[in-house]
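agent> Task received from the user: take the single chain below, predict its 3D structure, and emit structure tokens. No templates, no multimer pairing.
agent> Plan: (1) validate residues, (2) run structure prediction, (3) serialize to tokens, (4) report one or two observations.
agent> Step 1 OK, no nonstandard residues flagged.
tool_call: predict_structure(input=
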Amino acid sequence: MTTEQFVEKYHVTKRTVQRDMASLRDLLAESNLDYQFVHQSRSNVYALLATNQLQAEQVLSLLKVLMGTRAFSQAELLTLRRALLGLLAPAERTAVKKLSSVGLAQYKPVGQGSQELLPSIKQFSIWIMQKTTLSFDYVHSSDGQAHTEVGVPISLYFADFYFYIVMFNENRPHAIYRLDRFQTIKPVTNKRIRLRYDQKINEAAFNNQTYLLHGGNELTFTFRYWAFPQTALDRLPQSRVIKTMPDHSVIIEAQSFEQGILLWLVGQGPRVKVLTPQSLVTSVQKVLKATLEKYND
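)
tool_result: status=success, residues=297
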């Protein structure tokens, strides 16, 4: 605003405006507010300019990661983008907005891409904090049908395109549900499931095992790998190279859930050979034989 605008709006003299602006300048200089006081003497304009609350490269990185997940609808991605850009000063905001527009133009979310996730994330966060017992209808991938279940949400995490909810109930302490497959959800008032302390989830350890599907039992296995070792190690956080072979292949020991690791191993084709346990070796053989039979028909 100009001095004249202040005079007209607040019915004060120019000298009063100058004294007040000087006080405001000193106050802002002593504060930690994310604004810069500016006085343009030639035009006699006083202004507050926003400064960066995050660095431009930080906001750009976060936006690129969000687009890479493909988890949010385009509308929600734009909402998140506006919020992150709002943390930048105007000059940096313009540059980051332009740089992030390239990927946004061809952004394609997974699934139907129309379901809003942010309200569900907010509501489940409240239920997790309050340890609320829920009755819900959930569509399972096995049969595509909605089933009514009861449980207490204890954790929320993201992995491979989707957000997941970890539920505790009396039969399954760590049941995994995909957030976008919940239908009707109601808090239960007449029955409360008590969350046992010894069944609480260790999120730090559990998040290292959420990279694959969670069906089947958790198991430790070894396999021989003929591709770049770091590719497998990155995909399987709970893994390590235990031996290097003469042909430069490696033997890797890892931990995972049986269903997820089975699909990953089969997808590696001739680059991998499961060594232990025998139950996993047998499962891989069955899947590969069934796949070959499809081509023999």
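agent> Step 4: summary for the user.
Residues 56-105 form one domain.
agent> Done.
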